[in-house]
Design brief:
Blueprint (H helix, E strand, L loop, with lengths): L8 H10 L6 E2 L1 H8 L1 E3 L6 E17 L2 E20 L3 E3 L16 H9 L6 E4 L7 E4 L4 E5 L4 H17 L3 H4 L2 H18 L5 H12 L4 H61 L14
Helix pairs in contact: 3-4, 3-8, 4-6, 6-7, 6-8
Length: 289
């Protein structure tokens, strides 16, 4: 999911069943037109299912009046071919997030981008129970354990943000097992997308919470996890882009201020120099006899 967050989870399974070492996939024309790469001759296509969408007129009540509007509906699915990056040649792929994540000095920016996806205020505190964090739905706040590593803090933040977005209804949150599986799975997928491997923590956590779940129950959860992961990844990416622009603008302003200050300093030195008469230019007054 972290690699193919905009694919349905069923298509994600289809992709990995056909090519377990897959990295990134796209259609023949998409590789060619959007990325400047071409599929290698003889490459075996990966088959997935694409929706057939049609516009249909439906009657809706808009501002108290019945109106007929066009809406898109999926009427069927058909098989399409996609190819993995390893099956193509050409230009290098652009990477959106490599300058935004990974380095310690980008931690605060990533934290801010994730925090912007929820309207719950986020605080740090020494939590006596020892948990990494919690989301208080009634008081509408998120609390994170203070003193954690940056990697743990980011993972926990995504986990608690997911609770605030998916489980704000107390009835939904009442099923604690489902809620924890969905929140931790989403945290793992989102963190993996932004280059943070949380498997050492997440896999054990998920194992403890998923015991006793049957396939049908897990299937329903996976569909929710896929949707929430996709939405969070897109939202965080948008906020990162905005923060990156703001950072660039701030750097530009700081640079202009520094240049102005340097120019002013040179100007003041020149003025001071011209106002101080040299010894040779001093006018000697005749001494009185």
């Amino acid at each position: 999911m972290s690699k193919f967050h905009d694919y349905s989870w069923r298509n994600t399974l289809l992709i990995f069943l056909q090519k377990p070492d897959v990295s990134q996939v796209a259609g023949f024309q998409t590789w060619k037109k959007s990325f400047g790469r071409h599929v290698v001759k003889g490459a075996k296509a990966i088959r997935i299912l694409a929706p057939i969408v049609k516009n249909e007129e439906v009657e809706k009540l808009i501002q108290g009046k019945k109106q007929r509007v066009k809406e898109k509906h999926i009427v069927a699915f058909h098989p399409v071919n996609v190819f993995d990056f390893s099956q193509t040649e050409g230009k290098e792929l652009p990477t959106l997030t490599k300058d935004l994540i990974g380095d310690v000095d980008k931690y605060s920016r990533l934290f801010e981008a994730i925090a912007a996806t929820t309207d719950f205020p986020i605080n740090f505190d020494a939590i006596d129970s020892g948990v990494k964090g919690y989301c208080d739905i009634k008081q509408r706040k998120i609390v994170l354990q203070s003193g954690m590593s940056e990697r743990q803090t980011i993972k926990t933040l995504v986990h608690e943000v997911t609770h605030s977005l998916m489980h704000s209804d107390p009835a939904v949150l009442a099923d604690r097992q489902n809620a924890e599986i969905e929140a931790e799975s989403t945290a793992f997928v989102v963190c993996a997308h932004f280059g943070l491997d949380t498997s050492d923590y997440s896999f054990g956590y998920l194992t403890s919470w998923s015991q006793g779940k049957d396939f049908e129950q897990m299937t329903r959860s996976f569909a929710k996890i896929q949707k929430q992961s996709d939405q969070l990844i897109q939202s965080v990416t948008t906020h990162l882009e905005e923060l990156s622009k703001e950072f660039s603008q701030e750097k530009e302003v700081s640079k202009k201020i520094e240049m102005a200050q340097a120019h002013s300093k040179v100007h003041n030195q020149m003025v001071k120099k011209t106002r101080t008469p040299s010894k040779q230019a001093e006018i000697k007054q005749p001494k009185e006899k």
